[in-house]
Design a protein that fits this description.
two-stranded antiparallel ribbon, Porin, single chain, signal, mainly beta, about 400 residues, 2 helices, about 50% strand
């Protein structure tokens, strides 16, 4: 990682010293031909190239201010640098391309390679991808770039139930077919998978995101069993896109050096996602819902749920489209996010009552886009979260102001 960063700084320094003509720098336009789906998000980004150099660069950043309180208790005014993400892409040759996505979160508290894969294109319906790939569960996991969203926070179901930006080492195939106003697509991958952190974590609940604590997953499989991820999507140019996806495998270490430790315990996740723009009002609708099933050992307490569900729906309405302060393509949107997560859908063995541990949230928002690649946003967050026993919910509320932009 240090070598990579040093190389970037050296290139920047040499470029500055040579005083390269700015006309050699050109922004590669985002391909808007054909029908774009969520699976295309990894390449559907702005890149900057230097002359005829084979490498293009890009990225985005997110920063915000927030003041939130839970039942009257607040940590006060908080300024946050959520993330800086760098893209490096290269057209290696005919039908060969490479892209990497490296994310720096909370300053440099976390540094992650979220995507680094080689694509080999054989046929529109059959292409090979290998390296560090994003498992396509739902839509947000692939289409997560901050500048594309009107909200400061990422969806709770996508980050605290599903493991947002969940990627693993592996191989797979993907393809698309276009016909008139229709597009159909699929992806299927075999990768390294989950691990015991799902139930052995500090969260006190079944948690798929906790599996990201295993840094070794990029060099070895936790239990030697592949994780299977598959998605199919269909889109109509004038109506909507709908996708269904599955991710499943064995998460526990059931054998060690030939010694049987446990039975194979599975984790299975199903998701459906949709997005559309209503033709009359231009109202945008983005929705995703997922179900998680985990084979939890009977020796674990009931706070570790075997079933989870959750999702969100975003409503975005443009209300102002005209030049503002010299920004020719300025747009003002109002938006609202409704979300729900139930981390434990089980019932207490003793009473048969439903276990709590769920959250409901509403986030009204207003955003200004001075250009299509930059967004300034004001959110008001209101959460209701119940504990395991279903006691009256804790109330969290407050304002968030932030921006996100490609560069």
């Amino acid at each position: 990682m240090r070598s990579f960063l040093l190389g970037i700084f050296c290139i920047a320094a040499l470029t500055s010293q040579a005083q390269i003509d700015s006309t050699l720098l050109r922004r590669q336009p985002v391909d808007t031909t054909g029908l774009k789906l969520n699976m295309d998000a990894v390449y559907n980004r702005p890149f900057l190239s230097l002359g005829k150099a084979p490498v293009a660069l890009g990225g985005y950043l997110e920063a915000n201010y927030q003041h939130l309180g839970t039942d009257g208790i607040s940590e006060g005014h908080q300024f946050q640098m959520r993330r800086v993400t760098l893209f490096v892409a290269s057209g290696i040759g005919h039908r060969l391309k490479f892209l990497s996505e490296i994310e720096f979160e909370d300053g440099t508290k976390e540094i992650n390679i979220e995507f680094a894969a080689l694509d080999m294109e054989f046929h529109p319906l059959l292409n090979l991808r290998g390296g560090i790939v994003m498992n396509p569960i739902g839509a947000f996991n692939q289409n997560h770039d901050g500048p594309k969203w009107e909200f400061v926070d990422r969806p709770i179901a996508a980050t605290q139930m599903l493991p947002a930006t969940w990627s693993n080492v592996g191989f797979g195939v993907y393809g698309k077919r276009f016909r008139n106003n229709w597009a159909v697509a699929y992806e299927a991958y075999l990768t390294n998978g989950f691990n015991g952190y799902i139930i052995n974590n500090a969260n006190g609940r079944t948690s798929l995101p906790a599996a990201k604590q295993d840094r070794d997953r990029f060099e070895e499989s936790y239990n030697g069993m592949p994780l299977v991820t598959a998605k199919a999507a269909i889109r109509h140019r004038k109506i909507a896109e709908v996708g269904v996806s599955y991710m499943g495998g064995v998460y526990n270490k059931f054998e060690d050096d030939g010694m049987v430790l446990d039975i194979k315990r599975s984790v299975r996740t199903y998701a459906i996602d949709a997005n559309a723009t209503l033709p009359g009002t231009r109202t945008g609708i983005i929705a995703e819902w997922a179900w998680v099933h985990v084979d939890v050992p009977p020796t674990y307490s009931q706070q570790y749920g075997t079933r989870q569900q959750g999702g969100f729906i975003d409503l975005i309405q443009p209300i102002w489209k005209r030049p503002v302060l010299g920004f020719e393509h300025s747009v003002v949107n109002i938006a609202c996010r409704l979300e729900y997560v139930d981390w434990n859908m089980d019932t207490f063995h003793q009473t048969g009552d439903s276990i709590g541990d769920d959250l409901m949230s509403i986030v009204p928002a207003i955003s200004w886009r001075p250009g299509s690649q930059t967004v300034l946003r004001l959110n008001y967050r209101y959460d209701l979260q119940r504990d395991l026993l279903g006691n009256p919910p804790a109330r969290t509320a407050g304002f968030q102001v932030g921006f996100s932009s490609y560069f």
